[in-house]
């Protein structure tokens, strides 16, 4: 060995010692792996680990010719067996003409997991030897697909035909996840407004720790072309579906879409009465105006008469028994009315009666709204 070669080996030894020290100081290195010059990210897991619904299952398949002979007509097939179906995940279904000794056939498969429960990856290889003998073998890899999120929904039906949806999403895995997107895809009859500001509500980074629950709120409003069709909106139960996208702590993305969310349709009866305009505060014994909207929710034409009945504290100003005329199915009518209150405090507006002269049927509306009645002047001290 000459001097120059000895110097090179000494330098290599110094670099090797430096690398080993760096690996020992690296917190991501598996203990003892520095002797193999491998970090944690380069070591192969002994099992598949946790796979969750909505994530993408990826696998690298390699078939290696360990013999000293050339084999022919090699066909590699990868199937994924679930409880309900068998899926072919192979990129190509055509056979490779030959495979020389110490050579490989490689394939990478991907599958978006859409079922929970037991999954079995079946890898099958068939080939022909030099003597013409056809051989075949299989390997099975079994793993479980778990549910990552628990989703609960609540609906609130407003008097203005708006629907509020509250979605509660809980992380039921053992690792934190980054909530990249939680959105609501509304049905064709609604426009949606998200009432979630991620930065102000959940902090700058939208992380969901294990077993933590987060609430999301959405407001659905009927589109203008459907808003006036009371009968149509009344029967709408399908609201839309949630689209949830998250990332795990290693950056792997998962996505889930719920089935169509359905609410319990509000029961308006044949005639619906709602308020379009009403003041919050009124003065004692001074007239104030409200505007009522009457909608025919039945499938027949009505001939309506409006009666106004006074209560102990609220009195109607105007003629009772007014003829409103005929109202077609799904049609609406706005009526301005005048009232006054003789009692201070929070008072309930009641006493409206609608009578359909065709069927001689009367619809009663009490406690339709509340107003705060205040005294506009202060009594002088005695």
From TrEMBL:
Trafficking protein particle complex subunit 13 N-terminal domain location: 15-145
Superkingdom: Eukaryota
Pfam families: TRAPPC13_C, TRAPPC13_M, TRAPPC13_N
Domain Trafficking protein particle complex subunit 13 middle span(s) in chain numbering: 149-266
Coiled-coil positions: none
Domain (Trafficking protein particle complex subunit 13 C-terminal): residue spans on this chain: 279-373
Any single GO CC term annotated in Swiss-Prot or TrEMBL for this entry: TRAPPIII protein complex
Subunit architecture: Part of the multisubunit TRAPP (transport protein particle) complex.
Family assignment from sequence similarity: Belongs to the TRAPPC13 family.
PANTHER family: TRAFFICKING PROTEIN PARTICLE COMPLEX SUBUNIT 13
Protein name stated in the entry: Trafficking protein particle complex subunit 13
Gene name tied to this protein: trappc13
